[in-house]
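Hey, resending since the last one bounced:
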Amino acid sequence: MAFEPRMHLGQKLAQVQVMSPQMQQSLALLQAPMLDLQGMINKELQENPVLEEVPIEEQKSTDGEGGAELIGVPGQNEEAEPPADTKVDPTDESNNEPFDDFQAEMERLAEISEEWREHFNGAQTAPVTGGTQEDREKRDYLFDTMTANGTLSEHLISQAHLSDLDEKEMDVAEVVIGNIDENGFLQSTVEELAKVADCDVDMVDEVLSVVRSFDPSGVGATDLRECLLLQLERKGKLDSIEYVVVDKHMDALGRRRFPEISKAVGLSIDEIQKIAENIGQLNPRPGSAFEETSEQYVVPEVFVEWKNDQWEVHSNREEMPQIRISNTYKDLMSQARDSKDVREYIRGKIRDGNFLIRSIHQRHDTILKIAREIVVRQSDFLENGVSHLKPMTMSEIAEKVEVHETTVSRAVSGKYMKTPQGLYEMRYFFTGAIQSSDGGEGKSNTSVKQILSELVEGEDKSKPLSDEAIVKLMGEKKVKIARRTVAKYRGELGILPSSMRRVY
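The structure tokens again:
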């Protein structure tokens, strides 16, 4: 029996959750770090004619002295919600119907604007806590002096143009440089390069020697051994013992088999260790200085400091543009008395502006509540450092702040908190727990890593601690942990195995 393929057209019902553009904007504002938020607000200022930035003079006049949020005092100085007796919700789509009375429309818009203007100005009581004048000058200098690094290839090509290479050799040099990776290593054989450049192998060798004389030292090598030898040669150490060790005993050096090298070259183990330290000063990745950096310049959302015998949490208002609904919309509405389309356009812009202001305040309020709860739970960390960081989950904070767990995740993503212990991303404070061996309160993963680092730092370098020994010492500190977990954390911290940490 043959089956014949056919096409059918059908219908089905399904429930799909669709977010409105306003909800999407609100979530985007919540998730945006401070620098991104500045860009989003500035974009809205350019696109919405009824929005304006509050002049600096007016911002200063509204700043008070009692605006710090104090932990442990529920509700103190919390962001005010929109007035409860507001007669018209500016985000309610049902309010888009045209007005029969133009004057009534003007009064309605004025009422909405004044209520939100008062609400916004009332939220300006928090003091500006962006650091001292010296800190701000240093930050401005940092941003003003930022420069973009060129690529390694561009750097090498520029040196090639300044060399004595002729036109044909220059073509070969471009082929050679084009086959050097971002770490500075040559990725093709001389024969392959000769074939691509349409020349003989001898010319490629000559040009490659010239390229290897360029800055940075060690560029153009085919492997780590050759890279280190080129650097030693550049330093005038062609006849040094370091050169011999790298050239003849690279594998043993990489495995830190110092007794083996000591026996081969006839030097003491102490001398070999010193030689290894000298070799360690060389650059194993000469092209790393030209990598495109992913440096992220951050601005803290909140500041935490100890004042008046308690922790105070301040919002960073200085870095965020302060906006409000401009009174110029009244003039625009008056000019548009006879134009229904223009009135609808202006009314829509006012509604969008009011929603933006409310979303910004809601973002600030959410982040501040989460920050206060973090400070309450991590007060030991603020006083004593990383080793006292407590395990904490987003679901716990979400329950306390009365929001969804995903809201907490969005609110802490990319947001930073300046504390007495340093600048930390708010997400840093959320860690899993390692159970205590005595059944007491567990420790956070970060705290356990800190303890591991301290144990390794304080170990006898001639008899480094094995992973099993670390497990036993952790147990003495009432931390129940498996050996494989120690190995995992050690790898994450960049700590070598005990056999490679040994100092003879």
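The chain has three domains: 21-80+99-128+299-418, 152-290, 432-501.

Sorry for the duplicate.
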